[in-house]
Amino acid sequence: MPTSYQAPMAGDKEKPSSVSQSLETNAKTETARVSNLLDTKGRALITITAGETISNAVKILRDEKIGALVVLDSHGALEGILSERDIVRKLAETPGQTLPQTVAENMTRDVKTCGPDDTLVSVLRRMSEGRFRHMPVMERGAVVAMITTGDVVNYRLTELEHEALQLKQLIVG
Question: Is Manganese included in the keywords of this UniProt record (predicted)?
């Protein structure tokens, strides 16, 4: 034992300490929700109508560098979703005849949606179980955004990096 060490004695006064960080100030208590993701990602939404051709849809997907389009009717109501998978499936079924077909003939009509208050964990679970990668976000009966599995995973990775930094700061002080 070093000679400079002295065991605490009964009459010793506790030295005042200052704490610049605490678990309460650093640990995130809220559960990440779709609205949190949209605050960082934005709400850009690329749509198409059911009467458009697959050829036009493919050009939009390419130009916008996205994997799916939300299909809206003339009143802005959700009609379906057209994904790259829908197009590839149809290309295999009708080789050489797919591009002139309409979006309505090829879109997925039974669209699973989420809301801004849904937790990201529950959304990711639904996407994984349903084996789809895109989910429209509905708010007050209207489609307001589209999120992907990649969006959710990237958000969570950023959140984990932030949490690790906070814990490191808590330890180091």
Answer: no
d(CA 20, CA 39): 29
CA–centroid distance for 41 within its chain? 8
pLDDT at 144: 96
Domains and CATH numbers, the chain: 30-172 (3.10.580.10)
Give the type of residue at 68: A
**Residues 107-156: tens digit of each pLDDT:** 999 999 999 999 999 999 999 999 999 999 999 999 999 999 999 999 98
Cβ-based neighbours of 121, under 8 Å, separated by 6 or more:
31, 32
3-state secondary structure of 62: helix
SS3 111: coil
